[in-house]
Amino acid sequence: MPFEPLPADFLLHRLQRPVYPADVVLDTDTYNEMDDQFALSYLIRSGDRLRLKGIHAAPFFNHHAASPADGMEKSYQEIFKLLGLLQRDDLAPLVCRGSERYLPSEAEAVDSQAARRLVRLGLEQPEDRPLYVVAIGAITNVASALLLEPALKRKLVVIWLGGNRADWPDNKEFNLYQDVAGARVLFDSGVPLVLLPCQGVVSAFLTTAPELTTWLKGQNPLCDYLWQHSVAEAELCGQHGCWSRPIWDVTAVAWLLEPSFMADRLLPRPIPTYDGHWALDLSRPLYREVYAINRDALMTDLLTKLRQRPLD
Known about the structure:
Distance between the termini: 48 Å
Order of helices and strands: HEHEHEHEHEHHEEHHEHEEEEH
Oligomer: single chain
Number of helices: 11
Strand order of the largest sheet: 3-2-1-4-5-6-12-9
CATH topology: Inosine-uridine Nucleoside N-ribohydrolase, Chain A
């Protein structure tokens, strides 16, 4: 469906850094790997700046799930597990199930509790305070909300971890390639958008078993779980010896917290193609794209916050 573009000055204003406290919804395929658990915990431990309004489970399909619906349900349950470890069961009412399948086309939303709630939360948001949607999985829930209510784009800023750097050989990145129709809706909608490309950018945000052991092991129940889960995931993926893994999704939360954690720039938004590439059209509206990560500063902030005792 065609979307009306936002005025250029309005769009540029929305793409500035947030005024704190910022209202945030996290859209997460939490059971997919190891990084969503870090991202959700980091967001909650950054409550002085980020005011959590919703935690929405996103679909995914890989070796951890029998189907996109199964991936979404496992993510939904994993969110509650993390809230227990964080001793934040008070946030349970913010959790909801998302889409059980990906968009069937660019004109058809997938109705879900998450999509409907995002529409409601966004429309309730004051005109001068956008709702920041940190999306760290397939973009189905967010794209569906934009299709259900196109006026929602005036109320949101979407921060999405998806796709690869424009000059990467292909764009078959997991979050994007699961739902290319959803990604095309996101980029065509005109919603203010911040993109964190995976390969070539966020792939630099690496950690290792010794680092996680030194910083997390024995600190608190949450840290022990994150440490154990990370090591188990590395072994499951065949990583042994001197392995390293990106904690991808943390960077999407971090964009909201501190400008020094990464560098970004304004560019015309590209078009995700169904054959796994970006198409470029320099006449399209601007978006903000991250091109470098300050790995050490961000990792220090992340691991320091995770080590906090619940009442700190």
